[in-house]
Design brief:
By secondary structure, the chain is mainly α. It has 20 helices and no strands. Helix 1 packs antiparallel against helix 11, helix 5 runs antiparallel to helix 7 and helix 13 crosses helix 18.
Length: about 425
């Protein structure tokens, strides 16, 4: 086999997997960006504050179901392969996204619309729960040892790119339509576009080859029969560290780039179109820099990058909401970008660190137990907690204190870890 032929499957796998994740996270993220719109359409029987809280409760509830999807899909991935796990997530994401776009509102069918919205959001959560561990495992197992950070960061790059795409599409739709048109039918457009992504992703993932490390493990008959149990019993320390580190990563990201849209329109004197434009621009900058962050961790190590990013995010948390409650537009842009860059610095190294913390036979399950559960509990609930804190205390800067406290917990955990970037995958 020629060198060119041996390199082709890796390129196809990276491109196909990255595009698949972009489109999946586009589907999943629309809900967060249109929280204000959905609250008026599906929770009109309450006052504005309660309606927004209710919408973010659905947002958080969906994250609580991510561990279930993650546990099932990760276990299948460790037992039957990463590729099969990919295809399952595609099907589970595409159908509920399109159905949300077709869903009658509360005005048409009453509370049944609210219930159906919740159920469809849960199905989306089951899909996205298994995506992260499968993609990280596949890309890292394909990567040359010296570029594991770069390859692993492509999973997070694609996640952010998908969220960016959702922000862009929602921003374009919002700016092109009047508020009345947006509420009447325009909000459906981003969800219905998910149908195109589902078809494209399915066929792209059919060309992805199985991880060589997993195939070798399977041929030797060494595949774990109970990967979830084994990951917790024999690798509980990295599971706990990853869980704690994920607090900063998830809370920071969802407050900086998702909840901030609702906050800016309610307390920052900004229109939805204005904040979506700023959010999209800053998210685009951060997205482009994710692979560079992964590559940097291949040069200097995972631990320095993770600690620096976490410390910077703590500072950003103390500034973000105070600045956005003010009137200085340039300062708002700068502080959001700073927080996003700190998240990026952390994320590029964290992706590879998670992969390097577990052997192949339980890699997906180990990542699932730490990262996905952490994202589900802390990331999914972050907008809800932020809304609740403001409602309860009357202090619009209180979410920043919550964000900083989460960063402090993560920072303590990261100070205890050993460097892994020179380790060979087992």
């Amino acid at each position: 086999m020629t060198r060119e032929n041996t390199r082709l499957p890796h390129k196809r796998a990276v491109v196909a997997s990255s595009l698949a994740i972009i489109l999946e996270w586009y589907d999943f993220s629309i809900f967060g960006f249109y929280a204000v719109v959905l609250s008026r359409l599906f929770f009109p029987f309450t006052d504005e504050t309660t309606a927004v809280l209710s919408t973010f409760m659905v947002f958080a509830l969906s994250f609580l179901f991510r561990p279930l999807g993650s546990i099932v899909i990760s276990s299948l991935g460790d037992r039957f392969g990463r590729k099969n796990a990919f295809i399952i997530t595609v099907v589970l994401m595409t159908f509920p996204t399109v159905l949300i776009g077709l869903l009658p509102t509360y005005e048409s069918i009453g509370v049944a619309a609210t219930v159906l919205l919740i159920l469809l959001r849960i199905l989306q959560a089951l899909s996205v729960g298994g995506e992260r561990s499968a993609t990280l495992s596949l890309l890292a197992e394909l990567a040359p040892p010296r570029f594991r950070g770069l390859y692993g960061s492509m999973s997070l790059f694609s996640t952010t790119a998908g969220i960016l795409l959702a922000s862009l599409v929602c921003g374009v739709v919002s700016s092109a339509l009047t508020p009345e048109e947006l509420l009447d039918w325009g909000w459906r457009v981003p969800f219905l576009l998910g149908a195109v992504s589902g078809v494209a992703v399915y066929f792209l993932r059919r060309v992805v080859r199985e991880s060589g490390m997993f195939t070798e493990l399977k041929e030797k008959g060494e595949v774990s029969k109970s990967p979830l149990v084994e990951s917790v019993r024999e690798h509980w320390k990295p599971v706990l560290v990853i869980l704690a580190a994920t607090i900063m990563f998830s809370v920071g990201f969802y407050l900086i780039f998702v909840y901030i849209i609702t906050f800016a329109t309610r307390f920052g004197g900004m229109t939805l179109t204005e904040i979506l434009a700023i959010n999209t621009a800053n998210l685009a900058i951060c997205t482009v820099l994710v692979p560079f962050s992964g590559y940097l961790s291949d040069r200097i190590g995972r631990k320095p990058a993770m600690i620096a990013g976490c410390a910077g995010e703590l500072v950003a948390g103390l500034l973000l909401f105070k600045v956005f409650a003010g009137d200085d537009l340039n300062l708002k842009i700068a502080v959001q970008l700073f927080g996003g860059l700190m998240n990026v610095l952390f994320a590029g190294a964290f992706a590879a660190y998670m992969v390097e913390s577990f052997p192949t036979r339980v890699r997906m399950s180990g990542i699932s137990m730490g990262n996905v559960i952490g994202f589900s509990v802390f990331g999914g609930s972050a907008p809800l907690v932020a809304s609740y804190l403001i409602s309860r205390t009357g202090d619009v800067t209180s979410p920043g204190i919550y964000m900083a406290a989460g960063c402090a917990v993560s920072l303590v955990a990261l100070l205890t870890v050993k460097e892994t970037y020179r380790n060979e995958l087992k």
